[in-house]
Amino acid sequence: MTTQRSDATTTTAPPPAGGAATPDASGPIGTGSRGTRILGLATLAGIALAAYLALVSSPDDENMGDVVRIIYIHVPIVVVAYVGCMITTLGSVMYLWKKSRWWDVTAAASAEIAMVTTALTLVVGMCWARPTWGVWWVWDARLTSTAMLLLLLLGYLAVRRIPAESGARSKRASIVGVLLLPNVIIVNRSVTWWRSLHQDTTILNTLQPKIHGDMAFALYLAIPVALMMFAWLLVHRWRLAWLEEEVLDHDLDQAITDRRAEAGFDARSTTVDIGEATS
Amino acid sequence: MEPVVHLRSAVSLLGRFPALAGVDLDVDPGEIVLLQGPNGAGKTTLLRTLAGLLPVVSGTATVLGHDLRTDARAVRRRVGLLGHATMLYDELTVADNVRFWSRAAKARPADAEAALTELGLDGRLRDVAVARLSAGQRRRASIAVMVARRPELWLLDEPHAGLDAATRDVVDDLVRRAAASGATVVVASHELERATALAGRSVTIVGGVIPGPDEADPDGETAPPDPSPEVARVP
Amino acid sequence: MSDWAYVAMAWGITAVVLVAYAIWIIVRGRTLSRRVPPEDRRWM
Amino acid sequence: MFRDALLVAGKDLRVEARSRVALNQVAPFALLVLIMFAFALDPDSGVLSKATPGLYWVAVLFCAVLAIQRAFAIEAADGNRDALRLSGLEPAGIYLGKMAAIAAQLVILEVLLGLGVVLLYGTKTAGWALLVCTCLAATAGIAAAGTLYGVLAAGLRVRETLLPLLLLPVLSPVLIGSTRAFEAARNGTPGEGWPWVGLLAVFALTYTIFGAFGFGPLLEES
Are B10 and B59 in contact, with CB atoms under 8 Å apart? Predict the structure, then answer.
């Protein structure tokens, strides 16, 4: 499923989350646009429906009771986390290949969303483990690999936050980004292999309760809704990351003109697009 | 013949800071050019940009036939940069350092030995760890490494700093011989009387800028300080 | 703590975190976009 | 490229031979870690001897982080990274050279730690072939990933804290694989251990390839 990403819709309307901001002279502010508004409203509606289905209308499981309702939020969030990771790796590969700033910003934006959703997955996983096995954390293969994924993402974001010239920062971050997917795969394989040594199948099969009938429908509705939410967050986070870069570049152009002015020469406008600098 | 260095309103970055904010410069083969300018004017940055170490983000910049914006790495092998940093491994001896860097540049072992003798490092100092050398000896070791690599473009940043008179003559002699044998030299220096005698002509950089002929400042009164008589800005 | 408490905790924490994150992005987007001239904002 | 690698490895090992930092600081640290484990786990309660393989490899990982920090500290001095860029050495050659030098130092540390474990913890050694192969594969993996993340963190003001954060999660498969392989050797069922050595070998190969390609761009930026 490709995430629907509305990128450059141009008309303006009040952003969904904020009030109708009165656009000042420099044009409408904020990262909203008509596309994100429609997507935002659709996502909100989807979430409401999914929540109703999961929490109210679907029956509770025979042996697990209401605890099964946690699955309806656990699975979609995990899907969003892994999709975020894949986009980060894809963005990093594309940046290394094409040197296009667009992909670099995409990698950064989706990495942060993936980090937030991975952390949520762990929290929800613990809320699941507590009633089911009476302990907050269990060394289950999937939970452990998710914890490692969170650490890998935190490492990636740490590299991206180090102040440096944007070309250097992007290249360093994209190499870590490219390594993200293989790392996740290798960690996942070794952790799953390690846990399977302990033949704790009893725990394993309770993780896959029999989903059937309208319970399945609730779950298979929740996943696309979660992906719409991911798309909405990604578009906004992408624009925010683009703004952050612009602010840095804006200061740089200012520095060039200041430097030339201080040197007593005319401030020739040397417009510099940092993104295209190839060293 | 094709100039070794050809820059037109080149802008290069040091991290986020626009170290060079528009430099116009041409240097022909075999020339020795003196680069002057107040502290922080961008002399060191210009040398490092010419060496292909700093990304050029706008304007045109070609060195030894390579375009610095796309092919900076190819320049590095053919360039020798002598800066404030010694670029030596403190734990290794002088001989180890010269041998390592010359073999890295695929130079012949004989060049390493020749460089050591030329800089007077083949005697007692040969097997002394760089860490225990004096500043002057350390710089002579750096020069020996550069000589051993036989670069086509010499970029010297304050080569005379911290050297005794005898060694300065050795350095000047080396530079003249290199230029005579076809290498090109750009020297950044504060010691004007010695450097001006060495250089064929001089160029002045202020605030990361060497203006081209077309945009010399109209009102003139902000012309950079004119330290030595025959300052000629050759386009 | 009954089953429902854990379900509520799971959904509650997720909702709070996601809404807070979305608001942070929107607010920061508005503050930063004031400092960037419109032509640099790709989507404007 | 391999000529450059040999040159760089030779240089690194000569720097190490002259300064003896690994021998005088990292090795004692390794033994210190073993002793601290003993303090923590109270030898006669039997936990220590049961957990020996795991403790051994945790000690190796900590020493690896120090050795890698050291390997790039010598490059951080006095413009050396500029010199490396100007040197005409192939980045992949520099990578393999530094990786080999780190691996060599790690092997020495592992032997030392092995002695320490045998003497201090009194573990009996069995299945030597598996033990040696595990060590070699794990060391290659640690050195490969370590060198790549080492140059990535080199030159950054925060490198002391960044390197462990980046490297240790990535090395977790090595920790799992090598510990399981050692346990298989100790339990006298080496057959179980060999698949883990396979995992370590795949890990090492993957990172050597990624490292060879990633080192150049990263050296540019550090």
Answer: yes
User: Same structural domain for residues B222 and B164?
Assistant: yes
Among B150, B165, B191, which residue terminates a domain? B150
B131 and B31 both lie in a single domain: no
Per-residue model confidence as pLDDT tens digits over A152-209 = 999 999 988 887 666 778 888 999 999 988 888 888 888 888 887 765 544 444 455 5
> What is the extent of the structural domain holding B59?
1-78+152-235
| CB within 8 Å of D56: residues ≥ 6 apart | D113, D114, D117, D182
CATH code, A35-238: 1.20.120
Number of CB atoms found within 10 A of residue A167's CB:
22
Average of per-residue pLDDT across B53-80: 86
In terms of CA atoms, which chain D residue is nearest residue B128? D18
pTM of the model: 0.82
Q: Is residue B83 included in any domain, yes or no?
A: no
Question: How confident is the model over B132-149, as pLDDT tens digits?
Answer: 888 888 888 888 888 888
CA distance B57 to chain A (A): 5
D155: left (phi over 0), alpha (psi -120 to 50) or beta: left
Contacts of A249 in chain B (CB under 8 A): none
Same domain as B229, residue B203? yes
Count the domains in chain D.
1
Reference A5, options A157, A233, A177; nearest CA is A233
Q: Do C32 and A244 touch (CB under 8 A)?
A: yes
Question: What is the value of ipTM here, to two decimals?
Answer: 0.81
Specify the number of domains making up chain B: 2
Q: For the segment B180-227, what is each residue's pLDDT rounded down to a tens digit?
A: 888 888 888 877 777 677 777 888 887 777 777 765 444 444 444 444
CA distance, residue A47 to nearest chain D CA (Å): 34
CA separation for the pair A85, A117 (Å, rounded)? 10
